[in-house]
Every structure is written in C-alpha cells, then in structure tokens.
Amino acid sequence: MSALAFYGVLFALPVGIIAMALALAATQRSKD
Amino acid sequence: MQETLTPAAISADPYAVAAFIGYLILIVGIGVWAARFSSAGVSEFFVGGRRMHRFVVALSAVVSGRSAWLLLGVTGMAYAMGPSATWAVVGYIVAELLLFLYYAPRLRRFSGRYDCITVPDFFAVRFGDEKGGLRALLAFVILVFMVGYVAGQFVGGGKAFSAGFGMSPTQGVLLTAGIVLVYTVLGGFLAVSVTDMIQACFMIFALVLLPIIAISDLGGLHILTAQLLSLDPGLVDPFALSVGAGIGFLGIGLGSPGNPHILARYMSIDDPQQLRFSAVVGTIWNVVMSWGAVWVGLAGRAYFPDVAALPGADTESLYPLLAQQHLHPLLFGVVLASIFAAIMSTADSQLLVAASAVVRDVYEKGFHRGESLPQRRLVTLSRVVVTALVALAVGVGLMADQLVFWIVLFAWAGLGAALGPTSILALFWRRATRAGVMAGLVTGTATTIVWYFVPALKSRMYELVPAFLLALLVTWLVSRLTNPPSDTDELFDAMRRGQ
C-alpha cells in the first residue's frame, strides 16, 4: 500500500494532471 | 550526533560565475531589445499591447507565480516531510489549469473589448465604478501588497547572492534590484514576459537535471526509497499529514486567481482561443518543475539525513548545496541562475503591476479621469514610477525586513482571498454588484490577517482557505441585497464574444 501510494503520488499523479489538461483543452476546442 | 557534523558550504567557482554572468547578460539584453516596442504606449508597456504569443503567456504566467518558494521552500518541505509535500503543489497546478481554460478567456475578451489594462480597470468597467472608489480601493490593496512582495523578492535575491557568491546581503539586494530595474524600465511587459520565458527554461532544466543526477549517483530509486524508509516511514508516505494541513496545502491554489501579476499575463495574449494551448504548456511546465522540486527534497534527505549537515541547518539551502555536490561547476552556475530566475521572474511582474496601479489607476483614471493623455508621456511616467518603486522596495527591504516578512506572508493569501472570489463572481455571476465586491475585498483581506494572528485558528488551517470562502460568501450575500449594473447582459456578452 505504501509503495503504491508513494509511486502513485510521485509518478501517476503528475501524469494524470497532464492528461487532464489535455482532455479539458480538447473538450473546450470541440465546443469552439 | 549533531556535534560531530560539520555543515557543508556553498561557494561558486569561476565556471559557475561565468555561467551566471552569461545568464545576466542575456536577461539585460532582452530588456534593451524590447525597449522600442514598449515605448509605443501604456498598453504596450503594461500588457504588451495584447499581442503576446501563447507560448510566452504560458510560461510567463506560470513562473510569475512561482517565486524562490518553489526552488528553496518546496525542496525544503519535501526534505523535511517527504512526499506529503506534493500536496502543496497540486492545488495551484490544478487551479491555474482551470484559470487558463475558463477564467482567462473571459477576462481577456472583456479586457480587449473595453481596453482594460489593469485588474482594477476590469473591475471598474464591470461594475460601472464612475466615482472611482472601487478602483482606488483595488489600487491601494495591490500597491501595498506588491511593493512588499517585490521587497521580499529583493531580500531573497540578496540572501542568494550572499550564499552563492560571498557578497554582503545588502550588495545582493542592490544587485538584484539593479538587474530587474534595467530590463523592466527599458523593455516593460514584453521584456518581462520574454525574460520570464527564458527563466522558466532555466528553472525546468535545473529541476529536471538535478534530481535525476542526484538519485542516479545514489544508486537509483530503490536505494533512495530504502534509505528514506530506514530514516522514517513517514518519508515515503504521501499521506503523512493532517486533514487540516492537507486542505491548507491544496488551498494554496486559491491564491492564483487573486494575484494580479498572474492575471495580467492572461490579459496579454494575442488570441483568447490560444489559451487552450497555454493551459497545456503551462500545466506541463508547472508539473515538471514542481515534482522536480519534490524529488530534489527527497534525494537531499537521503544525502543529508540530519538537517545539521546543511549550511545554517536550513532546509532551504538544500537545493544549491545538492547542485554543487553533484553537478559540473558550469551547471551549478545554471542552478544558481535558476534561483535568481525564480526571484526575478516574480519580482519583475509584480513591479509592473504595482506601477500600472499608480500610472493607470491613480494618475490616468483617477487624477486625469476623462482626459486624453499622450501615450509617450504615460510611458515615460511609467518608467519613472517603476524606478521609484524599485527604490521604495529596496528601502523597505533593507530597513524594514520584519515589515517585508509580514507583507509577503499575507500577500499571496491576502490578494487571493480578496481578489480571487470577487473576480470569479465578477466573471461568472451576473448578479454580482459593486457593493458586494467591495465587501468581499475587505472581508478577504481582514479574515486573512485575523485568522493568522489567532493561534487556535492558525494551527487548524492555512488562512487563505477560510478567508477565500468567507469573502465568497460575503460577496454573494451583499450582492443579493443590492442591485447589479443595468448593462450586465452587454458586459457578459463581451466576456463570451470579445470584440
């Protein structure tokens, strides 16, 4: 659990935030 | 154990000094290059004539909000707390992503339609502030916080020069102020934005390179985690913090929509549709820089398990110390430059916002309301005001460092709580009124200060979170009790469609 949380926050979370940025930007583009 | 430790020292050799001087020449050269464009008018001087490229806006908006706190403070927090320090960066990264995508386009379209150059300009037009009371209140709040903020950056620069190059702190303050003064006075917003972009590159380069090399020198990620675990299991647990601390960390992001030196970047882009691109680039930059800072802190803890091994037993000296021990002197010079990049990219943006409050909001729209003033005269005046504000900030920084400490402490939270909820409601809620916004501004600032000084409250949560929510509530409540401007539909149309 601890290793999962450690690697999740330090690797998966930043990738997830960038993926969210790409997804939201793409959604807004389709609205325009 | 502590008695046997000799703190490591930081000192720059000729290679590092050469790299650093090269960086300074580049920054000042941009100021000289941008001078011609910025002299055209006050719009060019303060928002780059709203012709900034999407890439420049992305990086400038991001690094204007990241002072030395990221490089020295977050690295130190990760050193002390482990990966739970990550939550201190998540809040502002997500907040700024949402600002780029939803808040910034409305602000940019509105400011283009009504020729708003400053944040008080936006509020004055949005709420029909004919008597100028709202504009004056905003200009005053911005000026006080921003001068204190700039003074704080200069003091930080002084300390960094002192630690890295053996100068006295006073010489360091004067040198930092002198460099910022030259390129800001000459080049205005264009120079500030382009130098911000270059400083962002210095920062990201250093924050990616240093943790990779430091962890590789240690033997790899598995050695790092094993060492941290043997020191303290909390150093590998990202949830080893209280709920109040976690909310407070995430709440740091509430400051972003209220800090006018960040908002001015959104107002400067050439095409509001391009803010989508800026959102993605800005978020990538924010993520990489911030996680880099956390990794530097974690690696540093493995190298220096005891804080007494750091110069002055100060966790904020970890970043330059680790760089000196693991990088070639030339790259160490780049790391030192990245600290000044963080300081100067914030100070220059804040300086311009403070100057715009004096020139645009007090002089042009206050003392000379309704008059058409020559643009060249306003630009000359802007340059004089920037110079005077630098002198004031240096004076405050050198003579009243306690005052600076307090102002800087309150600046991010105070501006965030005052301008954040009011500007969000002004942009997204038709029923917002001038009286509601004024009540929200006062509530946000006052709550920030009161919360900080009551220990029972302060120990529970970072003051920005309750102050932001209370200001939001008061703005909403007072707005419900008063009448919105009669032309609200037309104003909202400008936010949606622009020109």
Give a structural overview.
The complex is a heterodimer of chains A (32) and B (499). By secondary structure, chain A is mainly alpha-helical. Chain A is 94% helix and 0% strand. The radius of gyration of chain A is 13 Å and the shape is rod-shaped. The N and C termini of chain A lie far apart (43 Å). With 499 residues, chain B is mainly α. In chain B, helix 3 (54-64) packs across helix 8, helix 6 runs antiparallel to helix 7 (133-165) and helix 14 (329-367) crosses helix 15 (375-399). The longest helix of chain B is centred in the middle third of the chain and has 50 residues, at 169-218. In chain B, 60% of the residues are buried. The mean pLDDT of chain B is 90. Chains A and B meet through helix 1 of A and helix 5 and helix 12 of B.
Entry keywords:
heterodimer; A: about 30 residues; mainly alpha; rod-shaped; B: about 500 residues; globular
Biggest sheet layout of chain A: none
Oligomer: heterodimer
- Specify the number of helices of chain A: 1
Uncertain segments of chain A of ≥5 residues (pLDDT<50)? none
Shape descriptor of chain B reads globular
Q: List how many beta strands of chain A DSSP finds.
A: 0
Brief synopsis:
The complex is a heterodimer of chains A (32) and B (499). By secondary structure, chain A is an all-alpha fold.
Write the layout of secondary structure elements.
The complex is a heterodimer of chains A (32) and B (499).
Chain A: H1 2-31
Chain B: H1 14-38, H2 42-47, H3 54-64, H4 68-81, H5 87-113, H6 119-126, H7 133-165, H8 169-218, H9 221-231, H10 243-251, H11 260-267, H12 275-303, H13 318-326, H14 329-367, H15 375-399, H16 401-428, H17 434-453, H18 455-458, H19 464-481, H20 488-497
Helix pairs in contact in B: 1-8, 1-14, 3-8, 3-11, 3-12, 4-12, 4-14, 5-10, 5-12, 5-20, 6-7, 7-8, 7-14, 7-15, 7-16, 8-12, 8-14, 8-15, 11-14, 13-14, 14-15, 16-17, 16-19, 17-19
